[in-house]
Amino acid sequence: MDQPAAEPAAPAPGPVTPAVVAVVVTHEPGPWFDEGLRALALQDYPDLTVLVIDAGSTTDPTERVAAACPTAFVRRIETNPGFGAAANEALETVEGASYLLVCHDDVALSSGAVTAMVDEAGRSNAGLVGPKVSEWDDPRQLLAVGMTIDRTGHPSSYVEAGEYDQGQHDGVRDVFYLPGGCQLIRADLFATLGGFDPAQRFYGEDLDLCWRARVAGARVIVAPEAHARHVADLPGRNPELDEYRLTERHRLRTVLTCYGLGTLLWLAPLLVLLSLVDFGAGLLTARAGRARDALGAWTWNLARFSQIVGRRRRLSGLRRASDRDLRALQAHGLVRVQAFQQRERTGERRSAVTTVRQGVVDFVRSGPSGVSTAVWVVLGVLLLIGSRHLITRSIPAVGELAPFPGGPSVLWNEFFSGWRSAGLGSDAPAPTAFLALSAWGTLFLTFMGLARTVFILGLIPLGGFGAWRLLRETDSVYGRVTALVVYVASPVAYNALADGSLRGLIAYAAAPFLLGGLVRASRLEPFTSADGGVWRAGLALGLVTAIGALFLPLLVLIVVVMAVGLAFGTVLTGHAGAAGRVVTTGLLAAAVAVVLQIPWSIDFFGTDTDWTALGGIREGAGTLTVPELLRFESGPVGAGLAGFAFLVLAVVPVIVGREWRAAWAVRVWAMALVGWGLLWAGEAGWSPVALPAPEVLLAPAAAAVAMAAGLAAVALERDVLGKGFSWRQIGLVVGVGALIVGMGPFLAATGNGRWYLPRNDFTVALSFLNAEEEDAPFRVLWIGDPDVLPLSGWRLSEGTDYATSDNGLPDVTELFPGSTTGGTDTLAEALHTATRRETNRLGDLLGPMGIRYVVVPERLAPEPFASEEYPLDPAVRDALSSQLDLVQINVNPAVTLYENAAWIPTRALLADSGAGDMGEGPVTPREALAAATATDFGDSTAALGDELGPTTFRGPVDGQGELYLASGPTSGWSLSVDGEEGDRRTVFGWANAFDLPRGGTATLTFERPITRYLLIAVQVGLWIFVISRVRRPIGTPRRQEAAS
Amino acid sequence: MRFSRWPAVVIIAGLLVGAWVVDRDHERDRPTSADASTPLEAQGFLPVSAPDDALTSTWYCGGGTATDDGRADTTIVVANATDRELNGTLTIFPSIPSQIVLQADPAETTGLSTTATTEAPTTTEAPIGTPTTTSTTTTAPPLTERPVAVDLTVPARDRVEVRLADEVDAEYAAALVELAGGAVSVEQRVDGPHGADVSPCTTQAADSWYFADGRTTVDAVETLAFFNPFPDPAVVDVTFRTEEDLRTPVEFEAYAVPAQSLVVEDIGTLVTRREHVSVSAEARSGRLVVSRLLDIDGSEGPRGLDIAAGAPRPATTWYFPDGIVAEGLGETYVVYNPGDTAAEVDLYIEPDEVDRFGAIEPFGLTIPPEGFQEVAVEDEERIGTAISAAGGEDPVLRHGARVVSVNDIPVVVERVLEGDGDTDRPGFDLMFGAPLLMEQAVLAASSTDESVVVANPSGSTPVRVTFRSLEGGTLGESPTATELEVPAAGRLAVDLATLGLGSDVALIVEADGPVTIERRVVIGDPADSSGAIAVPLAGTVSEPPSPFG
Question: Considering CB atoms only, which of B3, B42, B53 is closest to A573?
Fold first, then answer.
């Protein structure tokens, strides 16, 4: 042991007592240090020695120790190894002690604390004993009386935030662990356990030690007679420490170490899932650090897997208590929410108030009676019940609910390849959604089916969450939960699901967030607290829009429509200036969203932009009537007159509300009217432009109605209740009644268990398409109503789109618009030629494009799983059935399938050279078709069947003839045969042919241009810039606080 | 800032109520028929030549016989109206054996009834007395009956003829003509011991075919040719309306026509001894071409040979540019209603010399569902009255005719002409009218004894018509064939011999307004008259004007 700081006082005579060494670990101690030492010096325990371990402080604390506790010893360590490792110094430097009292340097014990703890340790035969801990500055305010954890290792305190000590915890109790600060531990136990885990430098070492002690059979108790005050401001003292990251890492390390193998087997998937939720929440809130840390905890521990194995091995030799034994000391359920509260109370930095996590904190703390919690729980249960068959089985791949690819790497490769296979293929950037979905799939450990289910069904509660946040500034729990209930119970999401409209679901999830952004941009009461001006509001809203536009590009227009609608309402209420801010914000958001989609948006908004390529765009009249629109009854979910109930509720604030309640109700009603009106014009056939699926436009209207309904609750709460009897009381009755009645259709729909989605899809019926790929690469041409096509295509005629998929059934990648360049117009011309009855050999025209099958779905799912028909344009149907080289294959009445008797593989060896050579000049589609039909493909054979990637193919060639590639012409394609390059030329104006320089192994690759990478870098930079600009003002007040 | 909610409430409520009211009266059914999006010429009313710049042209010829001694020796006539040579293929489909094998069941031996069975084509006969069974086949035809492809080259502005018997030897044969271009007209001519006929092939296969008239009397043999050039089998239900009953023989229920085959059935074996037979052939699946060959030996009246593809769809208006009521001629209009709603039809006989014959009141007909009506013009009292009023010696009433469904129930109309040998319309002829109007048409087949009738349905605007010939690569013109006027609501009948374009040449007819064009030729030995509506060029067809203005 080192030298004492001063001469020790003579020990007081008395009975023999266990020797206790107080180990105080310090690093750059604050002013509280001296008081803590003095408290130790004043302890009445007769055999207490104080050892101060200084972990690399720049200033030697010896003098301060001597002054405050003259008998204390000081041991200095050159560097700061972390609290646990520093405390472990006691293992080597302390001998003969029965107990170690491990203390932080910011703890002050009450005078008899050590005695009380030692007495209790002996009385209870405890391995660890801790005091009752309270705030340093306010001893009446409790910090902890021991702690527990849930099964996942998340800590939970026995005391509430801000709870005052009124003697309610003054009984000795077994606890799961003692929070760091002050722990009395039997020295032999400490040595047996090997002390603290040195890898856990800060945060979590206390749980780890206690848990291992518990596993070793030791009791961990709190002796409330002992009292300690604790500063507990490690984040303030060491701001460079990332508390969240360290806590997550160490928690996981402890869990993986301390649980038995049997428990870990079932617990590990849950831990993974929770990490994924954290990751998703981090992404959704643009907090990349949190998202990274959620997964980083796993990578950190997996990198130290051998350490964990070793620790488990050592612990297994000590194990006296099973997991089942310890379970009684653990909290029930998941206590993460309480953990958030705890952090909040202990001064965690609130770096992003607009995060999902903070929303959850708000959510829990929001109601004096837990109304929010109750409503969320009930809605969650109802959603689970209503989705039970989709969860337990699978979501059928109907309409836009396309399956995800086999793994994230497919999406990743497609994103970076610079090649789009849509249509006849083109040299075009892929949508950013590929990257997002790849990351999403990675989150789910490549379980793409699970990723798809969570993605689709998760959009509903996400939309609800957005609605719940709408009225945050009103401080009305009832207003917020009413908006939540009305939005979740609105039929929009369920009809979108039933219709297989993923875009409708995306719009549903995004609409409340967009509305919220626009509302706050107005800066009208009560939404006056937004930071920054229009520029920042536009950036923030643009970020949200951009995220939604990853999957629904039309959102950039939707947000403008919403802004115009809201501005219209704002003008109605006499705030022209605010209306201008709203419109400006909406336009700015749209622009930001477009810019953030670079480089895809550059390609799409080219000279020949085809809006229909966005997918799901419909021309011509629909069938929805005004009453159906007002009831949001675009599908099977709805219930006649009951569907108007929410509208009645939404009218209440207009009638009975005062001041801003009525004004905002008028504004959002105006916005809803714009949405309805636009859709109505489309349904009636009056819209001059094509419109998206009904749910895409109904979602903003539904969000507006939900906000108006929430305002109804606010108005009733503030303007009616407690104001004496008046005619406004009628509004209360009407409002409550309407809310109850309006829930009816939603509740009825939950009984279905699958939201009326068909029970099956075409996967089985058309599975043979995928199997055909083994023969030769080919394309499938899909023709049909855009509402029923499982992929995005281009307009063929009113109500009929066409699209292609490669080698079988499409997946989610084909949901995104393809480039309008390439040979797509030639494909369209072939179909138009057939429709005009100018050919009865359509197969001859499609064959050179590699189109082997033509699929015409006319229902969402095969018979008998779907009954609603989406009939093909009869002219197109007649044209197809009149072809002499299309062989109809009977699969199911819901789909018409033709096999092209004249198809050739998309990569084929042609016997003759020079086929289809039309030079490099522009070629009209008509000329291209004529040239193709004049070419003899009779002896063509499939080639380069070894697919090494989306744009790399390999296979043997004999050097005769030429290689034909039925994909968009670009010099990016190159062919080499055993290292010797073959010359490429454009054929038919839209395809490629290569001279074969020799026989051997040929490799066909698409060379990505450097500009592709540069544009991706630009895109990443843009996202970082926007995110940083959005987040920066949040941090500003924090810096100001710090400065003050 | 305070605001008054009531103006906003009024505006919002007004918008909602207004939309509701407007929406209630707004019809917006989605189109369910092809007509809304299909060009008129592609809707199947009649054969229409593909446009000049079409990638390909396809023609289906139901055909007659293809043997040296056949009763309807078939020749395909292809005219090319373009200024470039067209290459293509003529694929001949020899007929496969009948899908129907008649057999007598025990009851038949007592003379009580007749039954039949369908079997595979390789089965030629079933044993007498075996139980009645029905089976269909969708197998491909035997190798010996595989289609035969013949390269076809049609010089610019010229025509070629291909006699099927020169290429194959088959009891019956159909032809599929595919050419790499448009502005082509293809017709089929049949010659037999009882007469001859020429009619356009059809440009579309369809899932329904209708014939208003036909007969299975003792002097007549009526066969239906089911031509399926597609790679999928077709399954058809065939219904016969006779003067006595409506019948769908079990043999023609789900009647299977194998892929890429021709099957010819003599309907007299199942619909025996009927003076009137209307036919509906409606496919359950697939598409096909159904054509009728009617051979009348003259033992009971005029003899003749007639071949025609059916009407793929009924229509509400039918024009017959040529008509005549004269001694020795019988002219009958047969209106068949294949639908399930009674059709109210007016038949207009429109004389050339209205001043002389007076306006003839239209014949009002009620055609029951799946029924027919016949109007023998010369037997009608009001026609007799008109002729009597005209006076003169042996007056001839030359006229056009028009059949209009006044309640918009579409019907199928054919005209029957029966003439003695000493008239200018000898023999027997059946002809569908024109359901559409046209401005340009091609007449591929021809005869030295040919006349063309152009009718102008416009009641107010005269139309000028120019005839040109297609022969030897040139577009023949003649002052006597140029800018000929067709008076409003009148007709122009010209003999080919008087046009100065040469004899027996293919013709292009161009009008500066919508007209209907009928060609009448007398061909064969014995002489047999044959009428046909000209084949219009795509882009020049139009719908008839509303009969109600």
Answer: B3
Each residue of B459-503: pLDDT tens digit? 889 999 999 999 888 888 888 899 999 999 899 999 988 988 888
What is the number of other CB atoms lying within 10 angstroms of the CB of residue A849?
Answer: 28
Whose tokens are 């005839």? That residue is B467
Asked if A766 reaches chain B (Cβ–Cβ under 8 Å), the answer is no
pLDDT, mean of residues A498-505: 90
The burial of B546, by beta-carbon neighbours within 10 Å (0-12 exposed, 13-18 middle, 19 or more buried), is given as exposed
pLDDT digits (tens, 9 = 90+) for B171-187: 999 999 999 888 999 99
Find the Cα–Cα–Cα–Cα dihedral A794, A626, A702, A402, rounded to 10°. -30
Tell me the two tokens of residue B26.
């707004």
What pLDDT was estimated at residue A152?
87
Which residue in A has a C-alpha nearest to residue B4's C-alpha?
Answer: A573
With beta carbons under 8 A apart, name residues in chain B contacting A874: 31-38
Distance CA A427, CA A1030 (A): 34
CA A865 to chain CA centroid, Å, is 32
Give the DSSP letter of residue A909.
Answer: E
Distance, C-alpha B417 to centroid of its chain: 15
Q: What ipTM was predicted for this assembly?
A: 0.77
Bridge partners (DSSP) listed for residue A50: A22
**Letter string b/e over residues A629-653, b meaning 16 or more CB atoms within 10 A of that residue's CB:** bbbbbbbbbbbeebbbbbbbbbbbb
Å between B213 CA and nearest CA of chain A: 27
Give the residue-averaged pLDDT of A348-369: 41
Distance between CA B10 and CA B19 in Å, rounded?
14
Give the three-class secondary structure for A447: coil
Are B231 and A884 in contact (CB < 8 Å)? yes
pLDDT of residue A917: 67
Residue A793 identity: G
B232 touching A (Cβ < 8 Å): yes
Residue B309: both structure tokens together: 């593809």
B52 touches chain A (CB under 8 A): no
Cβ contact A89:A75 at 8 Å: yes
Task: List B residues 315-344 in contact with A (Cβ-Cβ < 8 A).
Answer: none
3-state secondary structure A782-796: EEECCCCCCCCCEEE
Nearest to A874 among B32, B50, B204 (CB): B32
The rounded distance, in Å, linking the Cα atoms of A275 and B106 is 83
- Tell if the CB–CB gap between B37 and A685 is shorter than 8 Å: no
pLDDT tens, residue by residue, B196-239: 999 999 998 999 999 999 999 999 999 999 999 998 899 999 99
**Cα distance between residue A402 and residue A334, in whole Å:** 34
> pLDDT per residue over B429-451, tens digit each?
999 999 999 999 999 998 888 89
B229 at A interface, C-beta within 8 A:
yes
Q: pTM of this prediction?
A: 0.70
